[in-house]
Protein 1
Amino acid sequence: MRVLAATDNNLMEQVSQGQVAQLAVLFERHHRALFRYFVSMRRDPELAQDLVQEVFFRMLRFRTTYDPAGSFTAWMYRIAHNAGLDDARKQRPDVVDIERFLNLASITPGPEEHAVRGQDLELLRRALDQLPADKREILVLSRFQGMKYEDIAAVLGCELGTVKVRVYRAIRALEQIYFTIEKEKVS
Amino acid sequence: MTCDEVKISLADYWCHALSEADEFAFGVHLASCDACRVEASLLEALWKGLALLPAEEPGSDLRGRFYETLGAYQQGLESRRSKSWSWWPRQPAWQVAASLAMLIVGLGLGYGVRAEKPHEEITQLREEVASMRQLVALSLLQQQSASERLRGVSWAYRAESSDTQVLSALVSAINHDPNVNVRLAAVDALHAFAASPVTRQAVVQALPQQTTPIVQVALIDLLVDLKEPKGAGELRKLAMAESADIGVRQRAQWALEKLQ
């Protein structure tokens, strides 16, 4: 099979059978997306690089546990999710006082305000950074990584319906944080 | 569709992932419910805005580090494969025949070379190469950069399996290196030193010191590969430790069964 035409599942199956050099193709295909995932989650490019390296190392070590019948993307992000959790346990806990934002954002913005803020990507980035880690992760997986809900459910170990509810809650919380930051900026 | 159903269908709607019937029901609800219509409009702008956020790019050194790790891993794998290759026949009759053949060849070679002097230059050269490999491995293992230390681990495979200094440096890396990749690579490299009793003792002693699940699993696997019965005590403790990762506990239990 030609490498360029091989699917991720085919390549990982070959890696699991001992052709570890094929991991290089998977690295070239996915390291940027993984880096973006970790940068979005931790806001530390150097740490994100270490974690990407860690994911590919774990893929090598646990290559025999790979099930080609499952989704490669879900398997890889499950490893990434766990690598991130393991690292976060060693670091300061990611605590964000969501209640502060929910209370401050009790006033719903009008359509005019909304049209203006839609342009402010820097504000959106700040709001995303302040989102609690679990909500940020589900938005990063669904929006940045373009993952299917079924795969997200497999990564996070929950039901499909739960993923849909959590995506809604995450975007709602993002909206409230965004509005709060904007209000603080104006005042 | 109810308001709650509309809310959890929002992202699907934006991605055009709803079925035709659901999309129709979604539209009908929005047309009749002001609250959902306003909320959908507010959140859609943010959803679209997320896609516009610029994507950060990794540094160029990430690729270099990956290929370095992959190379070291491949080297370790090939080294293990070559050591586990078994040419010895399984049938007893063939084993006897092979033993006799080797004895005859050995006697013949012994007679042939007994009068020759040991080739001192070759012996000296071998010692120098071994010494150089040891020096490179030890020096790289002491570097600040984790990728340099990983290179040191890959050099350790080229050292003599009786080289206690390299073995000691690998054990030290397992116990003290702050980088998990280096610790894991060092555990893998210990396979090359499996014959030494020091290796077995070091692995048993390293197990309770590790807290990273992936390194704990690697050490457990190594204990099983080494068939080291003295590890049973530590494995039993780990299998029962409530603070340990569930995967690690299960692996320890599996190892105990293998070592019995």
Protein 2
Amino acid sequence: MTETTLAAPRGAAAPGGPGAQDAPSGRPGRPARRRRLDTRNRPLWMLLPGGILMVVIILVPLVVAVVMSTLDLDQYTLQSWLQAPFIALGNYVEAVTSSPLLRSIGISVSFAAIASVITLPVGVAAALATQNRFRGRALVRSLFLIPYVLPAFVVGTLWRTMLQPGGVVDGMLGGLGVHPGLWLNGPLSYWTLIIVQIWTSWPFFYLLVVAGLQSVDPEVHEACAIDGATWWIKLRYVILPYLRGPILLALIIAFLHNINAFTLPFVLFGIPAPQDVDVLPVLTYTTSFQSFRFGLSAAMAICSLVLIAIPLFVYLRAVKLDSGEEEQR
Amino acid sequence: MTATASRTAGRRPAARTSGTRPISSDVHRLLPRPLLVVVIVVLLVIVLGPVLYMLFASVNSDVSVAGGAFFPAELHLDNYLKVWTTVDLGTGLANSVLISGSVAIVCAFVALATAYVLVRHEFRGRLTFLRALLGLQSIPGTLMLLPVFVLFSSTASLLGIQIIGTRWAVFLTYLTFALPFSTWVMVTYLRGLPKALEEAARIDGASSWRILTRIIMPLSWPGIVVSGIFAFLLGWNDVLFASVLTNPDSRTAAVALQVFGATQEGGAVPLYGQMMAASLICALPVVVLYLVFQRYLVGGLTSGGVK
């Protein structure tokens, strides 16, 4: 699983699709109107390979994680983990009261929110700027994607090198007379993480806005021109309302991406992470594989699941699962 | 309505308005020209600055990089030779190609079969399955790492099969974690395919397997390639699972690069030049894949967006 995967399905913001008046569901057993989906000759066995893998390697470990979060697990009890002492909510209590969990949650949430909000204007500006044809537009669009395309571990290594004390960033800022101090340690590291995350993730926002711009009716441009609207008026009152759905969706997805980000902070700052960038995924990782407090770490991981549950729920509600074939709730 | 913009994974969202009648570009302009130029130039500088720096630093001397030079004072092309012996980058790359490549192929076909049933057949729990495909993607990897590790190590004690440390461990993990997104990409792709051919084949008495392999598959190559590439990228880019589930023999390139960084701690001047060279080598296959398949990937990305 990755910190970056997430879907932004089409038409998430689309109200009532073409199939809105179709029969609501065609469950077998109910003689609903014949829908276009085939209910005979169902090759359900074709679901087995994917289904079994997802059950064994995603769902079963999820259950295991919940069980482990109630056990007192360390490197000695891990071998026969089912026999480890059961301590109920002990790990959760410890995580909240005497571990850096709450501070990490604060860092993760604020980092994810700030980074998503700042990518918004950047992504929108880039999408608007490349919307009209000009010479070299295809090249510009390809280049825009590069920061997003680079593997997170490469982005981390690159910026780690650039931000070394006395490195190229310090050299350039020093030329301007600015000496901000250490980037990779201390209070500034929090902003380093935000800056690098924005650098690598804005093209995704840009792509979603570009897709959203497709829905703008060509006629509105002419209408605006006839009414003599200035570009700002047109943008503010005509174009942006079209983009509200895609932008909200992109914000949720960006937030989920950011809050699950592990590789970038891991590579950028190393472990154990400096206190100011000890985001929740890194904390969970170090608690497991540096302190060997496996039960505590599982409890932290469950907390991170609870943390993303709300945006994830909003996201799943916003998504239309079935385009046109059948209306969803 | 957004849904009609591009239903299939392969279509390019960048395609402009229908273009049936010539409209002067001034009418369609969204930003005034000077602002447009400023936005593009600023973004290009921000994007290309670090990328060019990586390129220059990879042929620079370590001392010069540490001193904050942007341009190399003298060319050190030997960074690209030394990097293969300093860390075991060759083994790492071979493992990455082998693991991510086989994940891509297997995942694409499993996703195709799953998506075919999901798109064309009704069954109890279908919508739950579709929703799970989306929901499973945002489960944090750090939550899964420990239980997967425990699960794999218990196969050693229960079944006597040692998985951890082998390529199978990361192969199975990447395959499974790539499946939800790849399946979603295939679902959006298959929805765009006409049903007439399948129905004709069905009337002629073809079995579901035959329809899948003889009719759906040949029509779905763009979708298969896109979902395969996304699965490949997941494996190639992962550090989290590979850092725990592999040993030096089965280590992927991403982990080899981390060891590189770690061994440089505390020494004299870190081997910056080689580190940048290794980074470039690791990034190159991914960037090339993206640029070659850009049209299809961008469509797939916004239809169900990941890296």
